[in-house]
Design a protein that fits this description.
Immunoglobulin-like; mainly beta; Cellulose_deg_GH3; Ig-like_fold; 0% helix; hydrolase; globular
Length: 161
């Protein structure tokens, strides 16, 4: 085997074609509403971590659990990258009619790209938060929030941070 690229070999690199059963696919006994996605800071140095908070509300009549998923998308990269990368998830139990505010950290190393070594690059990124992958079509409604953030500085090896 001489071609080690992942393009066309895994759903993360299929381009615009969506997988039949993406991560997080399934049904629920209730409905959830996501709101107040906050990224802090919205502009960060190349080696810094990103703090994320989001509010999850159980708007249905049943107590239930939701798997909250965070995905990262590189808007421009010097090398091929996935359409989006799962960077965090958490199963949360929420009583009917209640809400929970969740906090996450997206580490700098989760933004690293492989270019003969792991590198951090400046640029614009989009973070998605929801109960499914961005753009996923399911039988039950589930929303995915998104927010952009920027990374400043110069590209550097991950081990240099």
């Amino acid at each position: 085997m001489e071609n080690y690229t992942m393009e066309g070999r895994t759903y993360r690199y299929y381009g615009q074609e969506a997988p039949l059963y993406p991560f997080g696919y399934g049904l629920s006994y209730t409905t959830f509403h996501y709101r107040d996605l906050v990224l802090s800071p919205p502009v960060l140095p190349v080696c810094a971590n990103l703090s994320v908070s989001v509010v999850l509300e159980n708007t249905g009549l049943q107590n239930s659990e939701e798997v909250v998923q965070l995905y990262l998308r590189w808007e421009q990269s010097s090398v091929p990258v996935p359409r989006w990368q799962l960077v965090a998830f958490r199963r949360v139990a929420v009583l009917a009619g209640q809400e929970a505010k969740l906090f996450f950290q997206v580490l700098a190393e989760q933004r690293a790209v492989w270019a003969q070594d792991w590198r951090l690059e400046p640029g614009t990124f989009t973070l998605f938060a929801g109960g499914q992958q961005p753009g996923q079509k399911t039988r039950v409604p589930s929303e995915v929030l998104s927010a952009r953030f920027s990374v400043t500085g110069t590209a550097r090896p991950l081990r240099g941070c």
